[in-house]
Amino acid sequence: RVCALKSKQIDDDYSLNCWDMILEIDPENVEAIREILDIYSYQFSKDKSLNLINQKLYIDEIKMELLERKIRLLESMTLYDEAITVYDEYLSFQNEDDSYVNQLSIYDKMRCMEQKALELYLDNNLDLSYNVLKEVHNIYEKTRDSENYSNMNSYMDDWYNIILMKSIKQLLIH
What does R_g of the chain's alpha carbons equal in angstroms? Predict the structure, then answer.
């Protein structure tokens, strides 16, 4: 088993070197960027992944894919403020030719905000936690009134009208 792990590491290192050389020759090679990010993912090299993503965000062909990867990385690193900022850029993208369908939605951003509120609550930052939950509720109310809401499940109403409001009221008590 140890030999298999070492062999995998050697293969990954060799592959990474090859893809890096391709990027040196062709800095916008989409396949190389994707492969390197996949290898970094297997190696749990989140900082390297973020660095590469930030360097390649100028490439329109894969910008949305890179933003999505960046959001997921930032959330996994519990960097919720940064993730929320990237969500704003990601969700503002209007795709004229329908060549890219957003994999993440406003509801994913709201979930990230809820995680941020929970983290603030656990750190005893009750006022800040309250403000974030209130913002989530406001976004939900705006979204609920939009055309897209009719496609969402009705359980969202229960969550935001009952559970979220109870959380906000509980924070007000403290």
Answer: 20
124 φψ region: left (φ > 0), alpha (ψ -120 to 50), beta (else) = left
Helix (H), strand (E) at residue 33: helix 30-42
> Which percentage of the chain shows pLDDT scores above 70?
74
* Widest CA span in the chain: 61
pLDDT tens, residue by residue, 27-37? 999 999 999 99
| Rounded Cα–Cα distance for residues 17 and 69 (Å) | 22
Amino acid at 43: Q
DSSP reduced 3-state for 97: coil
The helix or strand, by DSSP H or E, that contains position 48, with its residue range, turns out to be helix 46-56
Predicted pLDDT of residue 116: 93
Task: Find out whether 53 and 69 touch, Cβ atoms under 8 Å.
Answer: yes
CA distance 137 to 2: 50
DSSP annotation string for 81-95? HHHHHHHHHHHH---
